[in-house]
Amino acid sequence: MAGRHDSGFIDAGQCALGPLLRYWGVAPDSLYLPGSSQLPRVTASKPSVFLPKEHGSWSLALEPLLLGLLIAPSTAGAALAGSVLAGFFARRPLKASFAAADPRRRSDAREALVMWMALALAGLIEAGALGGWHALRPLVPAGVLGLLFACWDGHNDARSMAAELAGSAAFALVPAAVVMLAGKTAGTAFTLMALMLARNLPAVLTVRTCLRAAKGTPVSRSGPILLSGCAAAALALLGCFTPAPRITGVLGLLLFFRTLWLLGPWRPAWPARRIGQFEAALGVLYVLLLGIFWARC
To answer: How many Å apart are CA 72 and CA 81, to the nearest integer?
Structure first.
C-alpha cells in the first residue's frame, strides 16, 4: 500500500469524488488520478445501482416519450419526459436503498434516490404549471401501474409476466399526457395511448416467450400470437378511424410477423442481448415512421 502514496497520487476515496465513484461501482482506492507516477487504472467492483440491467426496459421507456414529443412537441411535454426519465432512473437506487448488503452502497443509493426523485418532482411541477394540471390526468392510471410494478420489484419479482406488463403499460400511457400538455385533444391522446399499448404489450410477451423457449422451458406460443394479432387488427382500425396515419396498419402487420418469426420454428439462434437490440431497433422504426407520417396527415 505504501507504493500508492508516491508523489503525484491523489487518494480519490478521501476527496469529494469518493461517494460518486462508489455509486458508479468504482473502487476509489484503485483509481489513480492524473499526476500519479503510475498509469491511470480503474478497477470495477460492484455493479452500478444507477443503470437498469434489463436492456428491453430502455426501449419500452423511451419509445413512448419519443412518440409523444414527435407528435406534439412542447416545453411542458419535454418537462414531463424529463420527469418520467428521472423516475425511470430512480428504480434501481430505490431498490438498492433497502436491499444492498453494503451500508456504504445503501447510503450512496439513497443519495442518488433523493436526487432523482427531486428531479422527477421538479419536472412534474414544471409540466403542470406550463401545460395545465388537467393535462396530467392520464398519469393517474400510469402511476397506479407503476406502483404495482414497484411492489413486484421490491419482492424481487420484476421479471414476472404481470410485473413486466404493468411496467410497459405504465410507460405506454405517458404519451397521452405529453400531447395534452401541448394542447391536443383527448382523441389524439387516446390514439397515442392505444398505439403504444399495441406496441409494448405484445412485445413483452413475444420476447419473454422467445427467450424462455430458447432455454428449453415449456411455453405456450398461442398467447403472444393471439395478442399480436389483436394488436395488428387494432392498429389497422386506428389507421382508418382515428388521427393516426394509414401506415399504422402496415406497422401492425410488421409487428405481427415479427412475433410469428421469433416464436416459429425458424426463429434465430440469437442471445438475449441481440434479441433486445433487434426489438429496440424495431421500436425506434415504429415510432419514427408514425411521427413522420403523422406530420403529413
So the answer is: 12
The tens digit of pLDDT for each residue in 144-174 reads 999 999 999 888 898 899 999 999 999 999 9
Q: What is the pLDDT of residue 50?
A: 55
Query: Which cell numbers in the block locate residue 221?
Result: 406460443
Q: Please state, in angstroms and rounded to a whole number, the distance separating the CA atoms of residues 166 and 185.
A: 26
Whole-prediction pTM? 0.81
User: Per-domain residue ranges for the chain?
Assistant: 1-47, 189-297
**pLDDT greater than 90 at residue 4:** no
Three-state DSSP string of the chain: CHHHHCCCCCCHHHCCHHHHHHHCCECHHHCCCCCCCCCCCCCECCCCCCCCCCHHHHHHHHHHHHHHHHHCCCHHHHHHHHHHHHHHHCHHHHHHHHHCCCHHHHHHHHHHHHHHHHHHHHHHHHHHHHHCHHHHCCHHHHHHHHHHHHHHHHCCCCCCHHHHHHHHHHHHCHHHHHHHHCCCCHHHHHHHHHHHHHHHHHHHHHHHHHHHHHCCCCCCCHHHHHHHHHHHHHHHHHHHHCCCCCHHHHHHHHHHHHHHHHHCCCCCCCCHHHHHHHHHHHHHHHHHHHHHHHHHC
Considering only the C-alpha atoms of the chain, give the largest distance between any 2 of them, rounded to a whole number of Å. 75
Check whether 51 has a pLDDT greater than 70.
Answer: no
At a CB cut-off of 8 Å and minimum separation 6, what does 121 contact? Answer: 83
Q: How far is CA 290 from the centre of its chain?
A: 19
C-alpha cell at 163: 410485473
**247 near 236, Cβ under 8 Å?**
no
Q: Most confidently modeled of 105-114, 214-223, 248-257?
A: 248-257
